[in-house]
């Protein structure tokens, strides 16, 4: 049985990684998927491979969301997945002492502003039907301090809190619009490739990075997508304002915060 049959689902940051896996799994579950990304070329190629629709979207820009609302005025599911770490252009200081205000704001503009705008779009696209599911991709880093990635951790913590605010607001309006956050830890996406490399020591590097994880491995994007399917489906209609950790058991113990 297709669990999302005929549901209109918008996924941001769908070109690669977790977003791509969610878009693909939603499509397999019978959804009408609108994959969005700032990278139009990769996003369009991904959508063509999956067999879904693509729309370019810069989640930082209110005008882009207004354009999407005109094209996709109603939706059943919105996944706010687009995000950045701040290290995409190379290693720069992101600790609380040395991070620049410009770099801090750049991370928050994508991760937090993008999620705020995505939630606002989702409410507008769902309130006529009075039902829907908003899924915000936060991070394990939103639950613990990350000394070397202060902006990223703060933005993901804010996503966690805003998800609860959205959930309560929608409930107060009498809508069956649910909002939940998902908190992945080390998921094997292209973001990790610069650290892993493709040399003979790749496996050793991978093992070192997950040494503190009880399950001793990276998670896979498809495992995050499985959680998203549950939250998007009618099986989870009593789940709102909740957070789902997918971290291989990391937060179950004391080894929660890396150096």
Automatic annotation (TrEMBL):
Pfam families in UniProt: adh_short_C2
- Keyword Oxidoreductase listed? The answer is yes
SUPFAM superfamilies linked to this entry: NAD(P)-binding Rossmann-fold domains
Alphabetical UniProt keywords: Oxidoreductase
- Name of this protein: SDR family oxidoreductase
- Keyword Electron transport carried by entry: no
Q: Name one GO molecular function term.
A: oxidoreductase activity
| Membership in a protein family | Belongs to the short-chain dehydrogenases/reductases (SDR) family.
Q: Which InterPro entries match?
A: NAD(P)-bd_dom_sf (IPR036291), SDR_fam (IPR002347)
């Amino acid at each position: 049985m297709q669990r999302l049959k005929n549901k209109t689902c918008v996924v941001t940051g769908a070109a690669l990684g977790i977003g791509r896996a969610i878009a693909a799994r939603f499509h397999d579950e019978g959804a009408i998927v609108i994959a969005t990304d700032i990278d139009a070329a990769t996003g369009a190629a991904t959508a063509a491979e999956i067999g879904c629709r693509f729309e370019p979207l810069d989640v930082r820009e209110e005008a882009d969301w207004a354009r999407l609302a005109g094209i996709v005025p109603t939706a059943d599911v919105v996944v706010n997945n687009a995000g950045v770490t701040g290290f995409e252009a190379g290693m720069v200081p992101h600790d609380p002492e040395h991070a620049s205000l410009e770099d801090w704001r750049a991370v928050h503009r994508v991760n937090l502003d993008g999620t705020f705008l995505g939630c606002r779009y989702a409410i507008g696209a769902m309130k006529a039907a009075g039902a829907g599911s908003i899924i915000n991709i936060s991070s394990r880093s939103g639950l613990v301090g990350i000394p070397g990635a202060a902006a990223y951790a703060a933005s993901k913590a804010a996503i966690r809190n805003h998800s609860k605010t959205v959930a309560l607001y929608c409930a107060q309006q009498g809508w069956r619009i649910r909002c939940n956050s998902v908190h992945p830890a080390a998921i094997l996406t292209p973001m990790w490739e610069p650290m892993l490399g493709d040399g003979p020591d790749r496996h050793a590097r991978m093992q070192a990075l997950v040494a503190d994880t009880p399950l001793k491995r990276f998670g896979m994007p498809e495992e995050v997508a499985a959680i998203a399917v549950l939250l998007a489906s009618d099986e989870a209609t009593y789940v709102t304002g909740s957070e789902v950790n997918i971290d291989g058991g990391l937060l179950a113990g004391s080894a929660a915060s890396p150096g």
